[in-house]
Design a protein that fits this description.
Layout (H helix, E strand, L loop, with lengths): L13 H13 L2 H8 L3 H15 L4 E4 L2 E4 L1 H25 L6 E7 L8 H11 L3 E5 L7 H6 L5 E4 L10 E15 L10 E2 L1 H6 L2 E3 L4 H12 L8 E3 L3 H9 L4 E5 H4 L9 E5 L4 E10 L3 H14 L4 H10 L1
Parallel strand pairs: 3-4, 3-5, 7-11, 8-9, 8-10
Antiparallel strand pairs: 1-2, 5-12, 6-10, 6-11, 6-12
């Protein structure tokens, strides 16, 4: 403790400042006494004591009441700020310290990493001591990782759910898988694609978990198991460049393609059977508690804009 400098020596104390502030506000010793719950003589003595300590006159005594002198105005201006800071310091000291919150998170679908960072910035405003670690090594098996305690939170798209005493699951929202081709592609003239169209042309996609592949085939082809020509491209920009060159049909989340549609060198199409929507859910270890629940609420409020909504906004613009 030897390195802590001694506090500066002052003549006034907090009681002196409160009396002067009350007198400046009330204008008379009688009204100041009512504000301070003191007697009028006690307030008069306190004012004289403060002026003696400073060796300065703080108020001119006039028939209309007390009027601040130049010295009094300087004291009141500084005292107000000082008392506010002291009050804030007291509240901070009385408030229990908030322990740091650390969440280990994985996304079952890599498309989430396109918008998740900006969401985490928003979340830190409500949980200032939050730290989120991305545990991408558990992408293929998020639920077992939660049960083993290796991660705290998972954003799920395809994992089959089961009852568990170790984690909670809640629905979040949906995104849509869409099909993107060059305007010169043979399928570009069609308003919608059929399952047969997808069999006849190469499909361009990123590296996806097997559970997502199974889900896609079930949604598009039902019980049929067709032989599809699938090219897996690790980089989004490379995948889109292949689509622009007319070398296949890109299959991707609406969240990824939305920023690229305004250039006019790609067109978006859907299936003739309707939107291919994926349900998103959040799962978290029960020990993660309130921080994980607040993450889920933030996701609901900050989910990326749907392509359908984007189309409407572009038309309005």
């Amino acid at each position: 403790m030897d390195d802590i400098a001694p506090p500066p020596s002052t003549r006034l104390d907090i009681k002196d400042l409160r009396v002067v502030m009350a007198l400046a506000s009330a204008g008379t010793t009688a009204q100041a006494a009512s504000l301070l719950h003191l007697t009028q003589p006690a307030v008069s003595r306190a004012l004289l004591s403060a002026e003696d300590k400073l060796e300065a006159t703080l108020f001119d005594r006039t028939p209309r009441g007390l009027v601040l002198t130049e010295a009094g105005r300087r004291l009141v201006a500084g005292a107000g700020k000082l008392l506010v800071e002291l009050g804030e310091l007291e509240r901070e000291v009385r408030t229990p310290a908030t322990p740091p919150v650390r969440l280990r998170l994985v996304c079952e679908c890599y498309t989430a990493y396109h918008w998740l960072p900006s969401l985490l910035v928003e979340l830190r405003r409500s949980i200032p001591r939050l730290t989120v670690d991305l545990a991408v090594e558990h992408t293929q098996s998020p639920l077992p990782a939660i049960e083993a305690g290796d991660i705290d939170v998972a954003l799920l798209t395809h994992s089959p759910l089961r009852r568990s005493s170790t984690f909670e699951v809640r629905p979040l929202f949906q995104d849509e898988l869409v099909f993107v081709v060059s305007p010169s592609h043979p399928l570009a003239a069609r308003k919608t694609f059929t399952a047969e169209d997808l069999k006849a042309h190469p499909l361009l996609t990123s590296h996806t978990p097997k559970t997502q592949d199974v889900w896609f085939v079930n949604q598009v082809f039902g019980r049929e198991r067709p032989r599809l020509r699938v090219e897996r491209i690790p980089l989004t920009e490379a995948l889109l460049d292949l689509a622009r060159a007319g070398l296949g049909v890109a299959v991707m989340s609406e969240w990824i393609i939305a920023p690229h549609l305004s250039r006019g060198d790609l067109v978006l199409r859907r299936l003739d059977t309707g939107p291919l929507e994926r349900p998103w859910r959040i799962a978290w270890r029960k020990e993660a508690g309130d921080a994980a629940a607040r993450l889920g609420k933030a996701l609901l409020g900050l989910a990326p804009q749907r392509v359908a909504e984007l189309d409407v906004s572009l038309q309005r613009g």
